[in-house]
Amino acid sequence: MEFNKNKRNHIKQILLGSLAIGVYSKAPYVYAKNKQKLRILGTHVTLQEEIRQQAMADLGIELEFEAKGSASVLQKASMSPQTFDLYEQWSNSINVLWRSGSIQAIDKNRIKNWGEINNLVKTGKVSQSAKIGAGDAPYKILNVQADGHLSPQETDQISFLPYVHNVDSFGYNTNVIPKGIPYQTESWGWLLDDKYKGKVGIVNAPTIGLFDLALAAQAKGLMSFNNIGAISKQELDQLFSILTEFKQNKHFSGFWTSVPESVQFMSSNRVVIESMFSPAVSALNGQNVPVTYAAPKEGYRGWHGVMCLSSMTQGKAKDAAYDYMNWWLDGWAGAFIARQGYYISNPERSKSFLTEDEWNYWYLGKAAQNNLKGTDGNISVKAGDIRTGGSYVERFSNVAVWNTVMPTYEYSLQKWYEFISA
Amino acid sequence: MLMFNSIKAQIMLVVCVLTSLTIVQIYFSYQSEQSYTSGIENTQSTISKIDLVKDLQREVVDLQRNVLIYKDNGSESAQSRFKQIVESISTKLSQLANVESEYKLPQEHLDYVSSMQGHLKDYQENFEQVVSGREQRDTLFKVKILNQFNALINELPTVTNDEKLTQINLIKLKLLSAENQVFHYVLEADFAKVNEFNLSLNECLTLVNSAQLDNTDYVVSAIKNIKIDFNRLTQITRGYVFLINVVMTGSANEFLYLTNELNELVSQRQAEINQQIQTQISSIRNKNMLLSVLSIVITIFIVLILSLRLLIPINSISHVFRKLAKGETGLAIPSKERQDEIGELAQAASVFQQTNLQTKELLESAQHQNKLHAKMNDDLADAKVKAEQATAAKSMFLANMSHEIRTPLNGVVGLIDLCLKSKLNEKQQEYLSKAFYSSQILMNVINDILDFSKIEAGKLDIEAIEFDFNLMLESLISNIQIRANEKNNRLILEVSPHVPLKMTGDPTRISQVILNLANNAIKFTDSGLVKIVINTSHENGEDFLVVKVIDTGIGMSPEQLSRIFESFTQADGSTSRKYGGTGLGLSIVKQLVKLMGGHITAKSVENEGTEFCADFKLLAKSNTTQTDLFNFAPNQIYYFADNNQTFIQKSLLTDYGFGCDIMASAEIADFSKSAISLATDNGLSANLVLIELSLDSDIKFLADFVVKLNKLGLTCLFLYEDNQVGKYFSTDLKGLAKLSLPSTPANFINKLNSLSQNREKKLDSGTKHTTADSAKPKYKGKVLLVDDNEINLLVAYEIMNSFGVEIDMAEDGQQAIDKYKEYRNYDIIFMDIQMPVLDGYQATQEIIKIGCNETKICGLSANAMKEDLDKAFSLGMSDYISKPLQVKDIENVLKKYLIKNTEPA
């Protein structure tokens, strides 16, 4: 009963959320006279109502959030830069957006706390021993070169504002799947384990889900990749041939396109293991669905949040956009998303916005001394819990692959289509 | 508890319990039906939902198909079809969300539908972007990129320099190659084509730079623009391919997944509902079963209870009742102590038994009474027999009385009559007359008593014979006149001209009634007037003879009047003493009138007079009336009278058709003179002159005028009262026509008839008429008188001898036969009935046996009973005379059968 009730509450929240978006999308006409309006297109990961309210309160501007699934967001952004001012998504969208001309370069000098940004986007390594990770590591696509290329070579122009980032893996319901040992027994291979046949969920995005499945296939020993960050056509053919077989055996229950959907998958027991983003894990745990966010021995799939400035945004909107970008790096937002398991690119700024217990748990990988509440007010971390995968550094030292748009992207789209339609 | 003592209440309770059970059963059945119905409804709704879901699945697949078609060739029809399908899906989704709104939709269901709606919305939006993307791409491709390529190639300078030409051609080649890659990419989105495109254009740029063309800057910038546009084209292509292949497909797949889930949910729900209904129905069925079993048990229980409480007691009480009905008593009655209807029944049985006992006693008593009644009935029967015997004896006694008293009385009367005819001195004459009169009275009294007795005994029979009214009246008047004269009463007779000449009835009894009434009137009237008025009436189809007898006597008080028809009653006690009589007269009259189908009424004023009115039903009558007796047409009458009250009323004469002038007798002188002067008038001779004679009349004076008038041809008739005075006058009128009054119409008319015939003759023969009244007619013939009584024989002999007939005599029946054998030619045999040796009947039979063609036999007997007459006639007697013998009776017989001897004796 409790489970169902929670589930219902959650869905109500989601519905209310989307309703709120509708309401706020109309609100600007009321406030437009006095306040600068800023349209932000993004995903549920960062487009959260608390953040919007806080930012509006702090900045005195009108914020309009348009939250969509990652693919939709990317598409919309790449096609219609006139429909947004800021774009919030992941680094794998940079190449697409940059090439399409939907976004303009951000002036690094206008980013107040740029100096506090850590090395992950600067050198690509959070520690000496850290793996860089295959695919489009964020540092590789940050700097806008004079010829328009994006490269690790530092310039004053950047293609995105680095801010939220995390490592993703899969979550599993420990009611069904015995809890594994991080970095030792937990493996991407579980996604293709016959034991969970029909109860597996994958994110519906070739630039993300493809890596989860590629990692899984590789971990399972079904095939290997020359460079998992740049999978060739042949490899794709092989991979999808394997995956299609799984698909046709009804191994996969569904392909989610948004975080709430992934929560719904798990909470409804549709899946017991699935590709997951961190907030979903927090939410589920908050709903007493015991989901463990795996620390796969093969390493994480890393992602880096990008905040991009629409190529069409100019003037006061652009100023407001810079204000908003600076606000993000000003501590509160970093602390807020820290409670959802995300990291901010200038963590020290947020430390003061977190309790020591929270800091220790979320960033340092230490056991929580007390129950920790998520941003929704539910207890998402129980006292004594340790974050899977350990500290920030440890986790980002184990990135197997970054979400990437590969040269075979067009082909993968076709293959992905064939796969999910199989 | 008390109220349930009554069986009615118990049965009501039972009915209530059974009804309640039935109602509960009906309720369960209804519930069962309801849940079944709702189950069916739910099932139908579910089926429709499943259908909806199936349709949804089909449509989503269709949607995707159309998206792919659009992706391939940008088909507009696919685009419009997409819109239709989206609308249809949207409608179906809202149907799914609402289809069972009245019945609880599981939250999951709503979640699914809402997710699907979300997916559909996204899908639609995405498709819009796809469409927009594709349009952008087409624009980029066709308008911008291809045009730019063409423009660029055209703008390349035309040179004649071979080297330059080669360079320019190479540039052209690279441009064409890049363009080719664009075409390829548009056909098949492949990143390799993008690389080759970039490679070609980069090489081209290198060539352009090295070639040092005139318009190098333009060419370089154009190439860069083409690159940007192509890059956008690839991005747009990626975008909408991503949308189609990933996002939309994902949505569609999710949609399909959700439909499957929904389908399962619905099916599961259906299964649940089915299960629920099954459970419900089964539960209801179980309840019904339980209830039925309960009902049966309760019913059996009730039947048992009813049997024990009702049927068995009722049975035994019925048994008791049957026995009671058979009249048994002393039975033990069960259930008497019960308070309910059975108890009442038992009480009733007890009462029944009690009643039986009483009935039995009553029966016994009734039987006893019956016996008494039977005895009484027997006694009554005996008494009746005795009474009848007594009545018979009385009748017999009366008959004997009649005979035994009348026979000697006959003798007395007959002998006195004879004696009176012999030479007697005055004293003897007077004594004998009185003796005769007394005898007559005695005879009348005896007759009255006899009549009364006969009437009382119902033995009086009324005859129905045709008779001559005038004859009856004549003998009646002569009788009455004598009495009237005795009391110095004037007797007036008025007979209506309409009275028939002959009528059928009992003349004897009619005469008796009139005689009685008239005698009665005379009896109570002194020196007054007694008027007999006779008429006929016709009522209700029947003819009546109406007789009024009016006197101016003492009259009666109303009280007296009211009792006069009662037997043995006279007006009062003093009447009886003063006037005598048996008091039977009027009673007999009334009885007789009644017997003759008539009525009698009386009215009277004390000291002024009395009027009796009697009518008699006439069984038949002749068509001829009194006026038919006229031989002439009635004409004018000149009536001379000195009394105010003329003997004959003027009105009566008028009735008879006469004109009438009444004048004082003194006026006859003037009349005579006028008559003489009018002698030449023929009309006058046809008229009549009537002259009343009274004590004061100057006979000679009148007679002179009459003689004169007769000479003139006028017919004159003197009228006088038939009394001493009248007789005295009449002697002075020798040779003149005269008529004593009262007179029957026949006498009056016959007189006028004869006068009218002889009107022109002299009055010579008139003297003969004077003796007509006193001299007896003589008859030719021989009679045989048979009577055992010597006196009777003598009386009869004397009477018959006075009529001049030859007489033989016999003293008994045998002698009569012997005489008859000796001399067969007797005209009449007068045969007494009661005789020794051989009675009258036997003798008559014998004589008739011998054969008597001409000889008539007339019975003589004091037995005046009707049966005697009947017997006489049935044996062959021609006539019958009741004793005492009257001259008149004998004359009547003689007149009937013998020829009148016109020769003087």
Automatic annotation (TrEMBL), chain A:
Xref: InterPro entries: SBP
Entries under Gene3D superfamilies matching the protein: Periplasmic binding protein-like II
SUPFAM superfamilies reported in the protein's UniProt record: Periplasmic binding protein-like II
Transmembrane segments: none
Superkingdom assignment: Bacteria
Keywords assigned by UniProt, alphabetized: Signal
Name listed for the protein in its UniProt record: Signal peptide prediction
Annotated organism of origin: Catenovulum maritimum
